[in-house]
Design a protein that fits this description.
It comes from Bradyrhizobium erythrophlei. By secondary structure, the chain is an alpha+beta fold. The protein has a domain at 1-41. It is 33% helix and 31% strand. It has one helix at 45-68, and strands at residues 8-15, 21-28, 37-42. The protein has a 3-stranded antiparallel beta sheet, with helices on one face. A hairpin with an 8-residue loop joins strand 2 (21-28) and strand 3. It starts with 7 loop residues before the first strand and ends with a helix. 11% of the residues are buried.
C-alpha cells in the first residue's frame, strides 16, 4: 500500500527565462518519489497550479487503480 493521497502535493515556481514562465512539480512528504513529475511553460502561477493539481489528480487516480490490481 502506498502513502495517503494527502502525502502528495504540488509546488509551483517561476523560471528565470524572459518572458517569465511558471512550472509545477508533484512531490511527496513521506519520502522522495524517485522520479520528477513536472510541467512547465505556463504564463502564470495560477495556470501552473491548476495544471499541476490536475496532473496530481490523474496520477493519484492511476495509482489507485494500480493498487487494486492483484499482486503476482
Amino acid at each position: 500500500m502506498t502513502s495517503s493521497p494527502n502525502d502528495h502535493f504540488v509546488v509551483t515556481y517561476q523560471q528565470g527565462e524572459r518572458p517569465d514562465r511558471w512550472s509545477w512539480e508533484i512531490r511527496r512528504r513521506s519520502k522522495p518519489l524517485g522520479i520528477k513529475m513536472t510541467g512547465d511553460g505556463y504564463q502564470s502561477d495560477s495556470a501552473a497550479r491548476f495544471a499541476g493539481k490536475q496532473a496530481l489528480a490523474d496520477f493519484l487516480a492511476e495509482l489507485s487503480k494500480e493498487e487494486k490490481l492483484p499482486r503476482k
